[in-house]
Amino acid sequence: MSELIQKNDNRATIRWKLLTGASALALATYVSSVSIAKAEDADHPLIWIDLGGQLAWNENGQDDFLPPFTLTMPRPPFEVVSPGRVERQAPTSWDEYAKLSFQPEDSAWVLSAGVRYGRSHRHDYLDQLTAQTYYYRHWAFQNITADSSEDHAIIDFQAGRDFGLGTGVSSTMSLGVRIAQFNSRAHSFFESRPQNFNYYVGTYTRFNATFDAKRSFTGIGPSLSWDGTAAVAGNTSDGRIDIDWGINAALLFGRQSVRGQHETTSVPYVSRYPTALNHNSAPISRSKRVTVPNLGGYAAVSWRTDNAKISFGYRADMFFGAMDGGIDAAKRENRGFYGPFASISIGIGD
């Protein structure tokens, strides 16, 4: 009986030793992995400087200025291109941005400030006419010149915290303030004589029109963003490939305005002599407070080391109803930027 009890005690001791040994090994492995993670975290740069650029397609809708003489029917046979085509804004802009981020030692919090700026300009000219048939008969024509430009600036101040989703994955939620300012300018000049006429006894009407407008929006409001990174291959010591993504939202409170004027003049002629002068001028002046929702996001592939990072991706940012794109009546239009981007980041300090 005593031998049986002794054997059971020995088995219990062996099981206890095996359990204790496995637990000690698991604890040692865990401590080791935590130590490595802490060592990697401890070695992160205190400051990151990001510089980049984006080829952005712009959504900047606004009404075309079409004076009454460009809308009469039937249209002159020489008009094979719509006058509204000339007044379109530039479809793309080159945006530049910079961002400064600070993460204290032994902290998951990140403070950042960033700015994005872009601008574009477009000049177009349209000359349409009919052929002159003989020397004393003058041809009909229509000339249109249009210039447009825009610029935009977006400034962000944010405080975020890294909530890791697992090994090789970081997830940062940030709260902050976003400031946005958009400006656009448009100028166009029309000159038209839609009838052919006999130089000595003919009758015709000559039209002129000009249009000038300056539009703007300035707003500020709270912002929320989520940025994530997932390691794909390699390590930060020798070089690692990551997949980056992010979404952002903001609600901007501000003011949109439009200022300008359009004028139209018509002069009927009989045998080369003017018989009347018809002139119409209408000022444009509107300003109102608006609330503009903003939604955006990006996806990118990055190559990074301990203190450097290069990224290539695609970014979109949309501001709903930010601009007044109307002429004689208000018309809210979206303002947006979307396209490929590239950036380089440098880490400073350990």
Task: Report on the architecture of this protein.
The protein is mostly beta strands and about 350 residues long. The protein folds into two domains: about 1-40; about 45-350, OPCA outer membrane adhesin/invasin (Lipocalin), CATH 2.40.128. About 10% of the residues lie in helices and about 65% in strands. The strands form two sheets. The protein has a ten-stranded antiparallel barrel with strand order 1-2-3-5-6-8-9-11-12-13. A hairpin with a 7-residue loop joins strand 12 and strand 13. Residues about 1-40 have low confidence and may be disordered.
Strand order of the largest sheet: 1-2-3-5-6-8-9-11-12-13
Report Rg.
33 Å
CATH architecture of the largest domain, please?
Beta Barrel
In DSSP terms (H or I, runs of 4 or more residues), the helix count works out at 1
The helix content is 10-25%
Summarize the structure.
With 350 residues, the protein is mainly β. It contains one helix and 13 strands; from the N terminus they run H-E-E-E-E-E-E-E-E-E-E-E-E-E. It folds into two domains: 1-42; 46-348, Lipocalin (Beta Barrel).
Tell me the layout of helices and strands.
Layout: H1 2-42, E1 47-59, E2 92-102, E3 109-129, E4 137-138, E5 141-162, E6 169-193, E7 197-198, E8 203-235, E9 239-270, E10 273-274, E11 278-304, E12 308-324, E13 332-348
Which terms would index this structure?
ten-stranded antiparallel barrel; Lipocalin; disordered N terminus; two-stranded antiparallel sheet; mainly beta; 12% helix
